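queue> pop job 88
queue> type: inverse folding (structure -> sequence)
queue> payload:
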């Protein structure tokens, strides 16, 4: 038996290189999107997942197939245990080192599977929490529409946005832009007013122009140039001038002083990089974000309850 390609690659690394777990990843296929929580060992195969091992031994450590696929009838942990008494098929002078690395490689496959399952559980909980806050904003939007249909009262006046921060929630963003490594759950749009020295100030009225900033991820670069504040809440869609966005401005609907809806085109620079990196398909033309302006105590309570949900998962 000739040693497989993954082993040849590792032994040809520089002599002073100490092999670590991530060194095995180049030859371990990534978990497929949409795997069930009970992951099939095929998800960790090194080549075509449709290939089945034909070796007489059921031990993954003794598999003689060139692509070193896992046995389909057992989980990786079971395969490792079953092989304790099997005869080794590779008899080279470096056989001990080969089987040592092979065991480490199998453990890496198991660890990657467990990590992927944990990441998926975390993503689902993020999505559940986002959906709950979205619903809060949607209900406020429906209530606003109901009042407007009466037609016997003017639209509510908005307070100054000069110090407002709306925390953004979006199932769309979870579905099409979610990154396990970078997602921190902090997205917001803030508005502020700067004086001639660039210092933040709070104007006495809503006639003063304000600026703003949207943060969705490290890729986001959306700063608003000075614009006139909206005076009233309603379904009217508003766009504010941005710095260097090439007409990628998000669209806002101010439901009240507490709630807003922000819409971003999926080909906008604000989200297109994250969508491309995730490899999402069937992406809608627009992604919606639902903003809630929280007082400090309300925000702290939300974060506390959110942390508790993650601890219980």
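queue> result:
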């Amino acid at each position: 038996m000739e040693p497989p390609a993954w082993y040849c690659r590792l032994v040809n690394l520089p002599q002073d290189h100490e092999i670590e777990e991530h060194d095995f990843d180049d030859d371990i296929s990534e978990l497929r999107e949409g795997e069930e929580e009970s992951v099939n060992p095929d998800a960790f195969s090194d080549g075509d997942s449709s290939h089945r091992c034909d070796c007489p031994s059921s031990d993954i450590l003794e598999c003689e197939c060139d692509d070193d696929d896992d046995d389909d009838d057992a989980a990786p942990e079971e395969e490792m245990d079953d092989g304790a008494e099997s005869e080794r098929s590779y008899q080279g002078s470096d056989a001990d080192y080969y089987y040592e690395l092979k065991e480490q490689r199998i453990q890496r496959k198991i660890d990657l599977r467990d990590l992927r399952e944990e990441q998926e559980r975390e993503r689902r909980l993020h999505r559940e929490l986002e959906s709950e806050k979205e619903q809060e904003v949607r209900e406020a939007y429906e209530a606003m529409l109901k009042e407007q249909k009466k037609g016997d009262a003017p639209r509510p006046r908005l307070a100054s946005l000069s110090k407002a921060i709306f925390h953004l929630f979006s199932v769309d963003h979870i579905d099409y832009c979610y990154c396990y490594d970078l997602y921190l759950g902090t997205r917001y749009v803030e508005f502020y007013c700067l004086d001639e020295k660039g210092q933040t100030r709070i104007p006495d009225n809503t006639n003063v122009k304000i600026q703003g900033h949207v943060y969705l991820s490290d890729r986001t670069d959306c700063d608003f140039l000075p614009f006139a504040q909206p005076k009233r809440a309603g379904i009217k869609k508003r766009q504010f001038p941005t710095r260097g966005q090439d007409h990628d401005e998000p669209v806002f609907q101010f439901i009240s002083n507490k709630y807003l809806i922000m819409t971003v085109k999926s080909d906008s620079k604000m989200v297109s990089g994250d969508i491309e990196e995730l490899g999402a398909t069937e992406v809608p033309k627009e992604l919606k974000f639902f903003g809630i302006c929280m007082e400090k105590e309300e925000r702290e309570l939300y974060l506390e309850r959110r942390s508790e949900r993650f601890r219980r998962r």
